[in-house]
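Please, structure for the following, as tokens.
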Amino acid sequence: MKFTLVVASAALCASGALAFNHGFFRGMSANGKLTIMSNGIGAGGMADTRDPEPFINDSDPRQSISAAPSFEEYLKSRGMAAATTATPAPAPATPAPAPVAAAPAPVAAAPTSVSSPTPVAAGSTSDPIFSLQASQTAMVDKIAAAIPDLAPKPDLSWAAADGVTVGGNPATLDGRDAPGNSNIAWLASVNVANQMSSLTIFNGPLTDVPHLVSRCIVNADNTMSLTLDFRPRAYGAYEMVDADGNYPGPEKLGRDAFTYSGNRKEFEKKFGTEEVVAFMKSTAASFEGSSPIAAQSESESLTTGPLAIKVTMPVTGGNVAAVNAAREQAAQYWLTWALEDSHYHKPGAPINSQYVYDSKYRQDAYSALLSTYSAAFGADGPKVTAAESGPLDEAYVGGGS
């Protein structure tokens, strides 16, 4: 059952929003120590995440969702008057990976109404981004056909005619959202010629459907790095899993351990099913000569889901075809979930709590992406990060726009 709800961005409770997620499958853990609590601020710098009696500071935007910046304010706060203005990049940090096992699942045929080049045939390595871009455009066209309310946002997009470049390469960004019941807070399809194809979808607060991150970067050494992830909408302490797949219990986290465990079980039941887990494992095992991406920032470990694929592989025709197939199937899973009424929250507190969590999550996701894109694009990293991240205030959609 779908319904219309106006989500107020002011006066929402800043508790109940819990931190974020971990690196790869259960048996894989993120390396490095995590600070559990310091002055009421949890791991990743987010407030009220694990402290039963948090320090409250109404002037701290991490604890006041109404203070979440608009997209324009967000750019100004980083000295970026426009999305196309570069700012200095921080030290690079690479996301963390994980191995898996067996051959990829076939994907549904893409729609024919795609105004982009035909993908290169398997076995060709002449232009992998040409093929990845065509496949990604087909994905977006298919999603837009299924969700008619998904509207372009020209003011937040980069058209080819705008002449935006990233690292000297032409770049385009197709930004869209679908307010209200369609519940897509932000969709960004980014393509950087010769270098990257990235599709990110953030859902609005009306459902618990995972966010989708689907990104492939072609590196200077003729390798390509794939990140494919369904990111949970409730904190499950995924970054705290140990090498044996075990999570901290109440002896370490107190009563919150039961909440986190419940969130993990809910995600597994609805989204991390045996079928999806098998798909992710077989996909990761299908790439020729792949290896896990070896390091990740703290923000990346906190925002990564439990099923994420993060690998680097040689640029080969077979790998390009396998990456296209994997990304198309992942987008199809996301679209199926987005169209199912069963994932809608009940009115009231569950939506408010989702809003608070998502608003904090989006800020951590920005920090994680900034590390990745600063490493990939140097001085242009912040520009691409801000543009792809979209408006950070969740009130932008879900009835708030």
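The domain at 91-351 is CATH 3.40.1500 (oxygen-dependent coproporphyrinogen oxidase). The CA atoms of residues 116 and 134 lie 5 Å apart.
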